[in-house]
Specification:
The protein has 16 helices and 15 strands. With about 500 residues, it is α+β, with helices and mostly antiparallel strands. Bound molecules: 2-acetamido-2-deoxy-1-O-phosphono-alpha-D-galactopyranose and magnesium ion (MG).
Length: about 500
């Protein structure tokens, strides 16, 4: 796909509304108020108006969980909550560019100041959890990109005020919204008109600098989404997006997002953490390749070897690349079951033996990017989740694309796929938690067609597909049976934000 240009700079912030929607009048009053508040607080903090505002939204993943870093297709969409960042370029005093950064909520997110080195990458300490890390990550990605184009570039100094209303640690990717908006802001401040493709690439690199070896789904959804569509995102053999509408049904199909208020820190490395899953999938890919006698070239997944790449080479060897992807996936599922019989997982020794290398070699080649504490690697379960999830994404997409109208049978079928994803996440990928399971059960009982976790899991958010007429009942049931029992002291404000109806929204813009 030809890279799309981002909407160019506008002199007047009011014009920005017109770029989000065809008519500025369509902008909801609360959105307008938030933008106006950002500008007036900027004037209070820095004494002058900002030059521009960069924005990027959070996302909800409808289906395709934990498979982006295996380079399989996913189906997210941007949500209307977002990060907006007001920026003013100011003269550099001294030899290095400085960033002064504040938040509209300074009690929670205190103001900071730091410099941007012009000759090397900015340092980020992933172990020190600071809110500005994500802005720094955006700076890092943007500067890497700019230096590649102009090695002698001198970054400008900026004053920054940020406002984010994506709930943090909540599975709708506050981090990607923040990183994409920050990278966009830094590119713009340095007078660079970035394409969507470039913004995506550099935001993915940026986010990994904060210590999470993620795939590119969140950043793709944050950058490329279009209002009213789901974003079918392919990573293999190269990145490609397709805007997919949800066909009409007798009753409007609604996606409801409910928080569990259980947070998990993805940068940690325990047995139930993100990076370990990335490592397990990488090991599964290289072992499956070895046992099937196929050679894997490095690919652009986070650790360089993906299950999708194994799949391709394995099917190529069988001369079956013309077969439908669905049946190819059935074949790789079969070989996974045969070659990985052990439910209890595999030790480092066993894996090294498969690969004909020593344990230290195994560790330095595949387990050195971050600390891995596991004794056993559940290669069977992780690979089976990934391949079956890839298949469910294809089935979901096919159902949406083939039907002009979604009848009852199709709606239940789509719901069933979502429920199967949840089951696979719970059992094979071990990335759910009792609270998330419970919310899903409550929602299904109250009328959702399908319910599952969305995002990395171990807490975070859930997504539910339901007819519009059931929104009230499902929301009420989750409130009565989950929030008021589990969190009786939850403030009205938090409760009001806990459940949102996801309206597929626009991606990044200036
Ligand atoms: P969340 O937990 O929403 O940030 C993470 C990854 C995604 C993807 C999902 C699981 C980051 C930035 N994003 O999303 O790339 O792998 O988990 O499908 O870590
Ligand atoms: Mg995130």
């Amino acid at each position: 796909m030809a890279p799309q240009q981002l909407v160019p700079q506008t002199e007047n912030i009011a014009d920005v509304y017109a770029t989000d929607d065809v008519s500025a009048k369509a902008v909801a009053p609360e959105i307008k108020a938030r933008w106006q508040n950002l500008v007036s607080q900027f004037v209070q903090v820095y004494g002058e108006k900002p030059d521009f505002v960069a924005r990027s939204p959070g996302r909800v993943n409808i289906i395709g969980e934990h498979i982006d870093y295996n380079l399989y297709d996913v189906l997210p969409t941007a949500v209307s909550v977002d990060v907006i960042i007001a920026v003013k370029v100011v003269p550099t005093e001294g030899s290095e560019a400085t960033v002064k950064i504040s938040n509209v909520n300074p009690e929670k997110f205190p103001s900071r100041e730091f410099t941007i080195p012009s000759d090397k990458d900015i340092e980020i300490d992933p172990k020190k959890h600071e809110w500005i890390n994500y802005f720094k990550a955006g700076v890092l990605g943007a500067m890497k990109f700019l230096r590649k184009e102009t090695p002698s570039i001198k970054p400008v100094s900026i004053e920054v005020l940020m406002d984010g209303n994506v709930p943090p640690g909540g599975g709708i990717s506050s981090s990607a919204a923040f990183v994409c908006a920050s990278a966009l802001a830094v590119m713009k401040a340095n007078d660079h008109h970035v394409s969507k493709q470039d913004l995506l690439d550099l935001a993915v690199v940026s986010e990994r600098s904060v210590g999470v070896y993620s795939g590119g789904m969140d950043q793709a959804a944050s950058v490329f989404s279009e209002r009213g569509y789901l974003l079918y995102t392919k990573f293999f053999p190269k990145f490609f997006v397709e805007h997919v509408p949800v066909p009409e049904a007798d009753e409007e199909v609604t996606f409801l997002v409910a928080q569990s208020f259980i947070t998990s820190n993805k940068a940690e490395t325990g047995p139930r953490h993100y990076n370990l899953r990335v490592a397990e999938c990488t090991l599964a890919a290289v072992v499956l390749a070895k046992l099937n006698g196929v050679t894997l070239e490095k690919d652009n997944s986070s650790l360089g070897y993906s299950l999708r790449n194994f799949h391709e080479e394995f099917i190529r060897k069988q001369g079956r690349l013309q077969d439908p992807l669905e049946s190819q996936l059935d074949t790789v599922i079969q070989t996974t079951k045969e070659l990985f019989p052990q439910e209890q997982g595999y030790t480092r020794e066993e894996i090294a033996k498969f690969l004909d290398i020593t344990v230290p070699e195994l560790e330095s080649r595949f387990l050195s990017s971050f600390p891995v504490q596991a004794e056993r690697f559940l290669l069977r379960q992780r690979a089976l989740h990934c391949f079956s999830e890839a298949r469910r994404v294809l089935d979901f997409k096919a159902c949406l694309s083939q039907a002009k109208k979604l009848d009852e049978t199709r709606l239940h079928y789509l719901g069933k796929l979502l429920n199967e994803t949840q089951e696979s996440c719970r059992v094979d990928y071990d990335c759910s938690c009792p609270e998330v399971d419970q919310i899903c059960e409550i929602a299904r009982r109250a009328g959702a067609w399908g319910s599952r976790l969305t995002g990395a899991g171990w807490g975070g958010c859930t997504v539910h597909m339901l007819p519009k007429s059931k929104v009230e009942a499902v929301s009420q049931a989750i409130k009565d049976e989950y929030y008021s029992k589990k969190f009786p002291d939850l403030s009205q404000e938090k409760l009001a934000q806990a459940i949102v109806i996801s309206k597929p929204s626009n991606g990044s813009f200036l």
